[in-house]
Amino acid sequence: MANPALTLLQDLSSIEDPKLIEWDWISDNFWEDIVPAIQGHIFLSFVSVAIALMISLPTGVLVSRYRKAYPPVTFVTGLLYSIPSLALFGILISVPGITIGPTPVIIALVAYSLLILIRNTVAGLDAVPAETIDAARGMGLTNRQILFRVELPLALPVIVAGIRIATVTIIGIATIGAYIAGGGLGKMIFDGINRSFPTMIITGAVLATALAIIADLSLLGLERYLRPWARRRKT
Amino acid sequence: MIEFRQVSKTYPGSDNPVVRDLSFEVPEGEICVLVGPSGCGKTTTMRMVNRLIEITEGEILIDGEPNTAMSATRLRRKIGYAIQQIGLFPHRTIADNIGTVPHLLGWNKGRIRDRVDELLELVGLSPEEYRDRYPAELSGGQQQRVGVARALAADPPIMLMDEPFGAVDPITRERLQDEFLRIQEDIKKTIVFVTHDIDEAIKMGNKIAILKQGGILAQYDTPETILAYPNSEFVASFVGTDRILKRLSLVRVGDIRLEPANGEAEDLPRIDGNLSVRDALSEIIGSGSTKGVVERDGEKGLLTIDTIEKLSRARDDSRG
Amino acid sequence: MSGILDVFRRPDFFELLWQHILLSAAALLIAVAIALPVALAIRNTSLGAALAVNIGNIGRAVPSLAILALCQPFLGFGFDTALVALTALAIPPILINTSTGLREVRRDIIDAARGMGLSGSQVLSRIQLPIAAPVIFAGIRTSAVQVVASATLATFIGGGGLGELIVEGTQLNNTTILLAGSFSVAVLAILTEVGFGALEMAMTPKGLKIAQKRGR
């Protein structure tokens, strides 16, 4: 006859709470779930940053030339930036024609980063000394050449600083995009919460954080590299 | 009266003192200028008087009492402090800035207000116009005047001034220097004044302390004596190879004894009695002659290059 | 449109609104109560400044959903868990700005203040803090907006708030409720930005405003 104590113990262990991190699950699902989630997240972020740059760089250049346009541009992008992400997602998927999925997420991510990218582009261009531009013009460079060979390279550190902040913000908000089927590491977080499965939550959250920090530090390194005079400054 | 007794300062972790065994006295009511090349410890020395930097060895006595006899904060409220970048508080009005120490000392509002107005007048700024302004609204020269007014506010017997006119252009600086010397004639404060500019030192100082690298006192004397009798190669080169001419710039033509100019007066250059001997020399030589005529109280005196040369070699403390 | 107004008239709307505001305000206040004293305590040490800036920078990079989600396995669901997470989110901007703001007060101003005889605490309270005030309040403003936005996500760990309307609208496929939730959160966030912006202006000493205008 089976030992009643042992049976009781076995019953109890089968209903115990899941451990905080089940490494088995991680290794089992690494290639099926975790890696695609990381890839999806990176893809989402990268595409958003790229599109945002394609919009913000020309806009920034234009606005730095025609300053009257700057306040309204700042107002609109600032307004977009103020809207909390989940709310913006909600508004976007209410628009007929936009369904849940990566599209509204990318639209929102781009909208969020416009303010900082445009602002930093303008600030970077403003910081180029007037004498330098004057000298370039005196040497016979056309306006176009001045922009691409003098102004933008000199403005680069400040622009990259803006890209850094935008990228980190985008990686963070992309996690929320999973709620409207945007994919990425946020999906693991939401699934983990819904299934009361801490391992998924922790894995998703830690990886998203790690991704953000890695991006932050790499771009910080790039920023420092582009700014040799700041590297040597004592803090 | 301020007395330095074998004062030394060595920073922890360093072997070399920045100020070495300094001993000298600043007589009451006089301006003592600390001057020397970069790294000679002049600013450090000044800041040891109000204990912004603490002495490693020796002591500083103020009117016979060591400056450690009371808390540093209390000590500083009795010493006027004016620095090169001025350090006006940007978030306070000019009146509040000037009234800082009186306020700390507990003066009542009316007394502070009167004192602020008095000081603004003294430094040449109209009280009605300036007392409610903010530092950012003032020019560099005006800010520097406010800095001096602020240092004088509680009427301290002693003042420390570190390149107080340094942040403005040379023309404004000269004007501020002249005005300050005029104020000092009335208020007669005991002042330790730091500068790197030997010309400013000569102009402002009753006594000059020339410091060498490493905080060593090279010479401590009146400007005239240092210019006429530098005690070392270092001092001679620091005051400049034109030191004889510098010395001549300290004396006014109208103050020296001259031979009467009889008859020779006609084609000689006229020298104004208010010119310095140095400028007079320049005029005389420039006119191609070796003499000039000085008109004074209706009498004509003869100023010859010979006279000037004798003057340059005399040991004279006409400003002492 | 009228449908959206109906949502606002729901009895639970004000309850959710109140939860959202309470959660945000509490998190902000606690964060200020923690970050300000810490920044003050470490202001004179260079190690402290480096630490503040680094913690702050890393804190800014962490996704808000990640912090909220990470608290859940350890602290469970509910208002308190959300409060802890949001407080953690609110600390970095205040810490960085207070630390930097104090450090950036011009050295000659502090030297003049000490040299004139202000004690250490007088220099801090009468000179450094007023001059650093705009920067400090800018940090509080950044923090406030971030907290109000992130409080939307509190719904996912049972913290309540206006995010629940957005979730409800999404799950029921009801655009009206969805938009009502989204708009109310957006308006709240914008009001926070504007309100704290005004506070920042109010806390900037007049002399500093003049200096800013003249580019000094």
How would you describe this structure to a colleague?
- The complex is a heterotrimer of chains A (235), B (320) and C (216).
- In chain A, 80% of the residues lie in helices and 0% in strands.
- The model of chain A is unreliable at 12-16 (pLDDT under 50).
- Chain A has helices at 4-14, 23-65, 70-82, 85-94, 102-126, 130-138, 143-177, 185-194, 198-226, 228-231.
- Chain A contains ten helices and no strands.
- By secondary structure, chain A is mainly alpha-helical.
- In chain A, α6 crosses α7.
- Chain A has a single domain (32-227), classed as MetI-like fold (Orthogonal Bundle).
- Chain B is α/β, with parallel strands linked by helices and 320 residues long.
- Helices cover 37% and strands 23% of the residues of chain B.
- Chain B has helices at residues 42-49, 72-76, 94-98, 100-104, 109-122, 127-130, 140-152, 170-187, 198-204, 223-228, 233-239, 243-248, 277-286, 305-313, and strands spanning 2-9, 19-26, 31-35, 57-62, 65-66, 79-83, 158-162, 190-195, 207-212, 216-221, 259-260, 270-271, 291-296, 299-304.
- In chain B, β4 (57-62) and β5 (65-66) form a beta hairpin.
- In chain B, α5 crosses α7 (140-152).
- The two termini of chain B are 17 Å apart.
- Chain C is mainly α.
- Chain C has a single domain (2-210), classed as MetI-like (MetI-like fold), CATH 1.10.3720.10.
- Chain C contains ten helices and no strands.
- The radius of gyration of chain C is 20 Å and the shape is elongated.
- Chains in contact: A-C, B-C.
- The interface between A and C is large, with 40 and 41 residues.
